[in-house]
Structure formats: C-alpha cells, structure tokens
Specification:
Number of helices: 5
Number of strands: 13
Radius of gyration: 17 Å
CATH topology: outer membrane lipoprotein receptor (LolB), chain A
Oligomer: single chain
Distance between the termini: 20 Å
Helix content: 10-25%
Strand content: 35-45%
CATH class: Mainly Beta
Amino acid sequence: MIKVLKTYGVRFGRLAGLLTVLVATGTAVAAEPSPARGLLTRDEVLGGIEKRYAGAGFAADFFQESTLKQMNVTDTASGKIFVKRPGMMRWEYEVPEKQTIITDSNKLWIYRPEDNQLMVGEAPSYFGEGKGASFLSDMKQVRKNFSITLETSKDRLFYLLKLVPVHKNVDVSEIYLTISQTTFDIVAIVTVNAFGDETRITLSGFDFNRVLDDSKFYFTPPKGVDVLQLDR
C-alpha cells in the first residue's frame, strides 16, 4: 500500500532534527569572508577540514540530542553514519529504536521496522541543492553556503566555527561546528532554529578507510511493508 504523507502533518522527532542539520548545509548562497580568530585563520581551518574529508567517504558513530525549547523536551538517539561522495548517506539509528535513513543523492528512504513502515521521497526536496549529505560529503559546500566566523572555543583542543545562512529561514538560524585541532575531524554539529530549538550531533570513532559499496545507499522495501510517499 502506498500513501501520500504530508511532512507538516507528521512528527518526525529525531528525524526532523537530522533533516534540519542536513538541509541547512545546502540551501544558502555564497558568502563574503569573515574575520578569523584563534591559532589558525578561518580559511586555514576550513582548508584543514576540506583536506580531511577529501576522500571517498567515511563511517562514524553518532549521538544525537534534540531539544524543543518551548516544550522543554529533550530526545536522544544514537547509531552509525556512513557517507560516500558524492552525496550518498546512510544513518542507522540503533537506540532507542531501530530506524534507517538512506539516500543515494536522488532518492530518500526512511525505514522504521518496528512500525513496518517505509517513507519514500526525493532527496533534493529535503537536502537542498547539494543533495544528500552535501555538508559531510563535500566540505567545500560550507564556504559556498554560509557566512563563516572562527569563534573562541571553550576547549583549547578544538576550533569552533559559526555558520550563518545568508538567506534567513526559520529552520536554521545558526550552526556551530566543533573541530579537532589535531585531526580536523568534525566532532560535533549544533543547529539552532529561529525558535531556539537545538539539535546536537556528536560524532566519534571515525573510519576514513572504510570501503563503502554503492549498494549500501539503496533500499529495497521488504515484502508487506507499508509505504508512505513523502510530499512537500
């Protein structure tokens, strides 16, 4: 059975926070350079990140914390992420319940086995012009899509970048990236919307040598699953 699902009528919960982070990285236009502070300049930090993420892809563990400020509600989840250039992504939620989000840069699948439910949509509609995981699979998109400043980090072991979309929108007011000074790994992504809601994704256990087959970024629906068509 295939149903059409209006996204504004569904509470995506953890998914909404994740989509906000990814949509934010592919929807704005080029920005002018900003002043930098810290051990390295802003452009030097960005160059280090681009070099670190220039390979074919990577795998990592993630912990996600989403907070709705007005409701004072915080939701947490964890699992594994797999990213492959260009624009392919797979999020495997393991806790508190199984859920898989996959894109091949064109199509989007969201599978919830406990509900026997599969949501299907077009990736560009949800991830912006960069498609899929443009932010994580092509770090140069950051320079193009945001006004960027190098902030003062509370922890001397990390750099802190603040990203502000040039085109303002209610979904994303600002994004903060925490970057290791030694490896240039992005260890945390914090997204804040116009209502003060916050989504924090912490990444660890990076594997930049993992060989990822394209089949990992495609989903074949199990027999008898309830298919919902995402429609924006």
